[in-house]
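Field log, afternoon session.

UNIT: design team B
ACTIVITY: writing a sequence onto a fixed backbone
BACKBONE:
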């Protein structure tokens, strides 16, 4: 079977959508070796480096398609799919090419979330219109929809009135490196490299309103002195980040929060930009904080569970799906609940250990092998 993927984000995205694409493609190639996996990539990218023998990258061939690679990806690649005798096409992040139905090639699309529909105020109106058009077209046109959580499935049904029989929930996994125990020597090297405190809280994700870093910072101000640890933040942001920084200055917390992604030393460090050093950073942390207001899945939660670090996350959206019994849940609107969770975990070793063990057990439901097998079952429904 020849399976083609929209691999733009596998090659060009260093965050959640890119990690999903790379992990799934590599897992399929490893566990279902009889197939050939064709990665449609508009132009050279730096993030996808692990290529098995049954993985082949496909770039636009003609000068016109190379110059207008976005158009090739969104529409004109259908001619290449036909000439390559592709058996199935999978759009890995919300999109499928216009006109793919006419080719007769079965199509699958992964829908991660419908956040532009739920929170349009967080996007420019033009972007909302574009996302809505692309998302709806993909959901209405494709043969099967893979939703990465029950929450996303229900949103697809609610916003686009899609027949639920067309939707399959296939939970995602994360980079298997997070499940590997990092040696003490490697931890010490990473701690020195990034000048990390001996103990710290960790926040990972884009610094945008939905991710809720502000309330995490407000929770820091509520902690008693014996529970005050520095907060290490991995992620970038714009206007919302400026608000957070302004709050930290006003609250006298500037020295307590370390924005690791701001350090110019790491911006071009391939082990930082590719997240290769992240498993060690996670395993050095005392608590992972991810009290987001809304997610399609919340991959840092799973990364935390795999890393055997206690996780605090939200009791809303799909986050209880991601965390199961292994996370400590809070109301994301209440900094005092976040602070209480931090204090309980830091002061109660038994609670922290219980969360770690329950989290590890829950994470076994999200292995790369199970994620790939679920997706392959969807493919087999169409062939």
């Amino acid at each position: 079977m020849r399976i083609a993927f929209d691999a733009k984000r596998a090659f060009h995205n260093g965050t959640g959508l890119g990690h999903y694409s790379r992990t799934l493609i590599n897992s399929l190639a490893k566990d279902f070796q009889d197939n050939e996996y064709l990665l449609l990539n508009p132009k050279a990218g730096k993030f996808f480096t692990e290529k098995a023998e049954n993985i082949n990258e496909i770039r636009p061939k003609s000068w016109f398609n190379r110059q207008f690679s976005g158009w090739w990806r969104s529409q004109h690649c259908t001619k290449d799919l036909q000439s390559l005798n592709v058996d199935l096409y999978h759009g890995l992040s919300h999109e499928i090419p216009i006109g793919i139905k006419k080719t007769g090639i079965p199509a699958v699309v992964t829908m991660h979330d419908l956040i532009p529909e739920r929170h349009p105020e967080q996007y420019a109106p033009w972007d909302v219109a574009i996302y809505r058009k692309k998302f709806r077209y993909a959901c209405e046109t494709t043969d099967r929809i893979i939703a990465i959580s029950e929450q996303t499935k229900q949103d697809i049904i609610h916003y686009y009135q899609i027949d639920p029989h067309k939707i399959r929930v296939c939970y995602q996994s994360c980079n298997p490196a997070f499940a590997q125990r990092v040696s003490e020597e490697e931890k010490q090297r990473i701690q020195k490299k990034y000048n990390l405190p001996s103990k710290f809280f960790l926040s990972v994700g884009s610094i945008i309103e939905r991710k809720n870093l502000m309330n995490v910072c407000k929770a820091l101000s509520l902690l008693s002195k014996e529970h005050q640890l520095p907060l290490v933040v991995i992620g970038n942001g714009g206007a919302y980040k400026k608000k957070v920084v302004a709050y930290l200055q006003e609250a006298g917390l500037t020295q307590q929060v370390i924005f690791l992604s701001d350090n110019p030393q790491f911006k071009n460090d391939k082990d930082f930009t590719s997240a290769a050093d992240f498993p060690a950073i996670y395993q050095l942390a005392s608590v992972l904080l991810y009290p987001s207001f809304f997610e399609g899945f919340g991959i840092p939660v799973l990364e935390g569970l795999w890393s055997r670090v206690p996780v605090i996350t939200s009791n809303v959206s799909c986050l209880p799906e991601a965390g199961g019994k292994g996370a400590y849940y809070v109301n994301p609107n209440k900094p005092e609940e976040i602070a209480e969770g931090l204090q309980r975990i830091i002061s109660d070793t038994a609670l922290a250990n219980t969360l770690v063990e329950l989290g590890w057990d829950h994470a076994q439901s999200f292995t790369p092998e199970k994620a790939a097998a679920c997706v392959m079952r969807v493919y087999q429904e169409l062939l």
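LOG NOTE: The chain has 19 helices and 13 strands.
NEXT ACTIVITY: expression trials, pending approval
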